[in-house]
Structure formats: C-alpha cells, structure tokens
Design goal:
The chain has 4 helices and no strands. Helix content is 75%, strand content 0%. It is mainly α. The protein has one domain. The chain is rod-shaped, with a radius of gyration of 21 Å.
Length: 83
C-alpha cells in the first residue's frame, strides 16, 4: 500500500522472517532426531527387557541414523569419535 518507497524495508523484513523460520525448522528437526533416537532406545530396551543392552551397544551396533545424536547425547563430538 505504501508503494515503491518501502520495497527495501519489506524485502529485508521477509528475509529476516525467512532466517528466523529456517532456524526454528533446524531446531525442530534436531528435537525430532532426539525423540526418534529415544524411541529406538526404549523399543530396543523393551524388546530385550533391559536398558542395559541398548546402552552398552557400540556405535557399530546402533542404526546409522541414530549414531550422531547418540554421540551428542553422550557428550561426544565427531572429532572425539574420529580419534
């Protein structure tokens, strides 16, 4: 409604909103990955009758999609794992 004089302002507003939404999506994706890992962990614990089994698994025994989040939850970085 304000015409061409505010194009730059409006464009910057929408670029900022896009950045905010992208960050929120990334945070939600990380939360979803954590919940998926926890579901796998407790499904495995239920099937084996103990949390000791999935807790003691090596990275090689853990499904690929959960390895990074598992290391993160355990406080290990990728650099530590590669050593």
């Amino acid at each position: 409604m304000q015409g061409g004089d505010t194009i730059d302002t409006r464009l910057e507003m929408f670029r900022h909103q896009r950045d905010v939404l992208t960050q929120q999506i990334q945070q939600l994706q990380h939360t979803l990955e954590t919940v998926e890992h926890k579901c796998w962990f407790y499904e495995t614990a239920k099937a084996t009758g103990t949390v000791d089994i999935p807790g003691a698994m090596t990275d090689e025994d853990v499904p690929d999609q959960f390895r990074a989040i598992r290391r993160e939850l355990r406080g290990q970085s990728k650099e530590q794992k590669q050593r």
